[in-house]
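Feature request disguised as a bug: please show the residue count (383) next to MFS transporter in the output. Example input:
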Amino acid sequence: MNTHQWMSTRFFSFFLTWGIFLPYWTGWLVHTKELSVTDASFIMSMGLVARGLSTLFAFPYLSGKFSNKIILQGAGIGTLVAVLCYIPAQSFSSLLLVTIFFHFFYPPLMPILDTAAGTLVQNNQLKHYGKSRQWGSIGFVSVGIILSLFIALLGDDVIYYALLLGVAVLVYLGFREAPAVLSQKPAANPVETSGWLKMFHMKHFWLVLLIVILLQAAHASYYNYGYLYLQEINAPGYLIGVIINIAVLAEIVFFSNADRSFKRFSIGSLLTIAAFGSTLRWILVFAFPNVIMFSIAQVLHACSFAMAHYAFMKYLIRNVPPAQVPKVQGLYSALALSWSTAVFTLFGGFLYEIKPGYAFLGMIVCTLPAVVLALRYRSIEVK
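Example output, currently without the count:
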């Protein structure tokens, strides 16, 4: 198996499970564990806090001690144990503890895989990041469409067993052969791994990071309440998975063409388009609370998520030394994909209880500043 196939398979297998967890887990907590929306959103937010701690501190530290393959195996085993712990958990406190444990191991698999992809690109063993990453999106779509049919037939209990099966497969793949560069124990280099302050010397790093933090945080309501909101606006149960995965289909199209179509676009231009697209997306969902407009707005996921993520990866590959990649990935995952999302999950849950549509409109408090900052970065990045 060549490196492109290896990376594509790992992206596919992880995002297969992510396609179960991300859209449906809050709904599973509400419907199967009988939590209120407020309690479920608090539990998921605390999980995101744990995710941030794991990716910001544990992942970079372990990356300096162990190979990427060993870290991938350890995170997979920890995830499987955590999923099994959900079976006996019934009370609010036990579900909170299990969710924190689960988030310590499971979401960090994403930066682990992105770090692997970045390492392969920098070592000229992977030509196109986007073409491998699109298989993650394909996995997400595949399971979402199939799972929605099973949920309609068997109920929300099937969400748990689908995740359990997917994680078991992920663990199995983690013990298969990996590219040699990912199996190598990192060499100690005190100059290159001297600390977090080294990131301040990377040109415009903190401005780029702030923009992607805002853009990723703006997905908090969609990730946690999109499934519930579609039920609220009377979307047919058997179509909910299809509607959710319109976003990922748009993501697939973007990633499959990104390396070619956006090769000449500056990072600032990509971030600016992403910020405008994200703002438009949440305004449309609020202004037109119906299934058709929600479905149309899903196409803008190609801008709000995929383009923002691609722009950051493009910045990372161009500007970040290999020894600093795990720290940068950890910082990105902690701040953009975890802690900021945790804050806006609580904010979105508060708004959702007032009126479901407000949870989505409220996300423009992230996207509008992102527009201003992206335009600013676009004007200075070439200077």
